[in-house]
Write a structure and sequence with these properties.
With 135 residues, this protein is mainly alpha-helical. The protein has one domain. The protein is built from six helices and two strands, in the order αββααααα. Helix 3 runs antiparallel to helix 4 and helix 3 packs across helix 5. The radius of gyration is 28 Å and the shape is rod-shaped.
Length: 135
Amino acid sequence: MTALHHVRVRRARGLPMPLPPKPKRPLGPPALFTWKGVPIRVRADIERAGWTWDGFLDELVAFRAHPSTFGEGWFALTRVERLVPPADLDAHREDVWRRIAEHRVATAMAALRELGKPQREGRGSFMGRFFGRHA
């Protein structure tokens, strides 16, 4: 007798049914990566977690650019490419490279602004010291 026969007999006699077997594989696709504690399987997981796609990409580019996450940042960017439809992949890559360039410019401008602030010792700004016009 097969297992299906036993189930039908138990159901016909009104006996309690056994619990269904646990699946041998996980239900749903595997997580591509985990971002801030949220497993990301599909693009909708990002929106369910409360982020927008553009905001997520901006955070990912900033994460990639941080010196302590040198290898992990590239790994995350390649994993995100699996969430993009193949027809849009070239446009997505151009968008990511544009975001990387904008992040580099913003970081450089912030560093220049920090150098341009007056020093505590009263030495003047970087540009004033560089061109010899400091007080």
